[in-house]
Design goal:
The protein is 27% helix and 21% strand. It is of the alpha/beta class. It folds into 2 domains: 198 residues, Gcn5-related N-acetyltransferase (GNAT) (Aminopeptidase); 268 residues, Nitrilase/N-carbamoyl-D-aminoacid amidohydrolase, CATH 3.60.110. Strands 8, 9, 10, 11, 12, 13, 14, 15, 16, 17, 18, 19 and 20 form a 13-stranded mixed beta sheet that branches. A 7-stranded mixed beta sheet has the order 1-2-3-4-5-7-6, with helices on both faces. Strand 12 and strand 13 form a beta hairpin. Helix 1 crosses helix 2. The longest helix has 18 residues. The N and C termini lie far apart (75 Å). It holds the Pfam family CN_hydrolase.
């Protein structure tokens, strides 16, 4: 007799960011009539409230997924749309002190329907609500047979009543009613692109029987500790005799930051321009940028090797890089200490970058997963466009890194003030790093101005002036500070102001275009719209008559 246990075939567990590709594919297969998600959006859902996202794994395949967030009763039980309550589908309206669990995504592999996977996922939500002592669960259920039966009913309310009476069959509503959920009201225009439901949904609730419903629930977020140490390198531009000497200079600061056990080190924008100092002849701006782009593989490899060797995450400033389509872009290499390498393009080249170097703007911006949580990178001028930082914050980024290169105080202060605004409005930390000194024979390195710093939101848990640390002006130095990510969670939930939670999604939100080659983007729908390269590139502006070739404001 064999007493050996066989492996369990089905596992319901908390979703992780490693599941994102499989979940995105599952949603696409489950809802062919609705827009899907990008992998970045799935990661955002998990980042914003990992405890509320679950997957069903059958025989090592993800066959079910649900996403939830916590939110106050006055939002959950009042009229709303899907985009409004979910923050555009990424779960950014999650409130850790909310008294209701709101479900905004649930799907089961069509091949596995009938195996009660949906019921099991609902049970996970119910157990979570009970464990946390929440008032209950709310969600909006689709009415997928409404369009087919619209001639038999006077409207969505009449349709719901006939479904409850058993006169009309609706598989979704029937399932939800059978699972103990009670309909409250019809939500019109909940998902306008849901043609089968004519855009309508039914607000359904389940009240926690272990909570007294007549007593309002009040939750407080404990002031925890989630410490991360960040270093910003204010780098001196200096002539070098070859590539090896340049890398040795960079490795020196990586070594020092690692000695201080920093989790991240940030280098400035275009910190590799020193590689032009040993060129034998003077290069035109276009020749110079072309020459720099040839170093890309070596730069990437060197930073990757250092990240592994010194056990530190390196934000590699930025470096001119030739893209697959032949364009030169200004790209930051994010080399993580586990060996992973990410790239973040500069989305908005400055007028001078476009004119002198023919730098093209990037196509997308997304949060990057690290061992310290998701982060974002905004290269200099990008920090002056609040939509980009908000996208990163919505995807869960709590630290934004801003490598910059500015020649005078006015340019620096634009980056500084805008970066601090991004810290306040997104309740996140922002780390700046710039170049100092000069390289007389290298265009765009003739003069530099920088005061690198680590900025915080302005509220009680943080530094009085919103500055965790800053360097002295125009000297080469390494500035290091500990930041507590848990303070951000507290500020977002219970701070003096709560700029992320208090957004008016009923009035405005941001829609991103779809990538080239896909169908035209929808203006409304369940899923947010996608990032894209602009369909038409703007021509380079005429050369500013009063600005010599070596001057710029990046």
């Amino acid at each position: 007799m064999n007493n050996q246990k066989s492996k369990a075939r089905l596992d319901i567990r908390q979703a992780t960011v490693a599941d994102t590709a499989a979940v995105a594919d599952l949603v696409h297969r489950s809802y062919s009539d609705l827009p899907g998600y990008t992998e970045a959006e799935i990661r955002a859902q998990i980042n914003n409230y990992p405890e509320g996202c679950f997957v069903a794994v059958l025989d090592d395949r993800i066959v079910g997924y649900c996403a939830s967030l916590r939110i106050d009763e006055d939002v959950a039980l009042h009229p709303h749309s899907w985009r409004e309550i979910t923050g555009g589908g990424v779960g950014s309206r999650h409130d850790p002190t909310g008294d209701w669990l709101y479900g905004y995504e649930l799907c089961v592999d069509p091949k596995e329907r009938g195996t009660r996977l949906g019921r099991r996922l609902y049970e996970e939500r119910r157990e979570l609500a009970e464990r946390l002592g929440l008032s209950g669960i709310a969600f909006a259920g689709r009415m997928p047979n409404l369009a087919k039966n619209k001639r038999k009913v006077s409207g969505p309310k009449d349709y719901l009543e006939k479904v409850e009476q058993g006169k009309i069959h609706d598989p979704v509503l029937r399932f939800q009613l059978a699972n103990g959920f009670t309909p409250v009201e019809i939500l019109e225009d909940y998902i306008p692109s849901d043609s089968r439901s004519l855009g309508n949904a039914v607000l359904m609730i389940w009240r926690n029987p272990y909570v007294e419903s007549d007593k309002p629930k009040s939750f407080r977020l404990p002031r925890g500790v989630e410490s991360v140490r960040v270093a910003t390198c204010q780098l001196q531009a200096r002539a070098v005799k070859d590539f090896a000497e340049f890398i040795n200079n960079i490795e020196y600061f990586v070594d020092i930051a690692a000695d201080y056990r920093a989790d991240f080190i940030l280098f400035p924008e275009l910190f590799t321009l020193s590689l032009l100092s040993f060129e034998e002849k003077n290069l035109t701006p276009m020749e110079a940028i072309e020459k720099l782009s040839t170093y890309t593989p070596r730069i990437r490899q060197a930073l990757t090797d250092m990240a592994l060797k010194y056990n530190i995450n390196i934000i590699g400033g930025s470096h001119p890089t030739r893209a697959d389509d032949g364009d030169i872009q200004n790209v930051a290499f994010i080399c993580l200490r586990d060996g992973a390498v990410h790239e973040q393009e500069k989305i908005h080249p400055t007028p001078n970058e476009r004119y002198w170097w023919n730098i093209k703007g990037g196509d997308s911006i997304d949060a990057i997963q690290t061992d310290c949580g998701p982060i974002g990178v905004l290269i200099c001028y990008d920090s002056e466009f609040p939509e980009l930082a908000r996208r990163l914050a919505d995807q869960g980024a709590r630290i934004l890194f801003v490598p910059f290169c500015t020649d005078n105080r006015q340019g620096y202060m634009r980056v500084r003030y805008c970066s601090h605004a991004r810290a306040v409005e997104n309740q996140c930390f922002v780390v700046l790093s710039g170049n100092v000194g000069n390289l007389p024979k290298v265009d765009n390195m003739d003069i530099q101005y920088a005061q690198s710093c680590i900025l915080t939101p302005c509220d009680f848990p943080f530094a009085r002036d919103g500055i965790a640390a800053e360097a002295s002006e125009n000297v080469e130095t390494l500035t290091i500070s500990d930041i507590n990510l848990a303070d951000l969670n507290w500020a977002r939930a219970e701070g003096t102001v709560q700029t992320l939670t208090d957004r008016r999604f009923d009035l405005y939100d941001i829609k991103w275009a779809k990538p080239k080659g896909q169908t035209a983007p929808q203006t409304t729908g369940r899923a947010p719209l996608r990032t894209a390269r602009a369909a038409v590139r703007r021509p380079a502006p005429p050369a500013p008559p009063h600005v010599p070739a070596g001057c710029r404001d990046r």
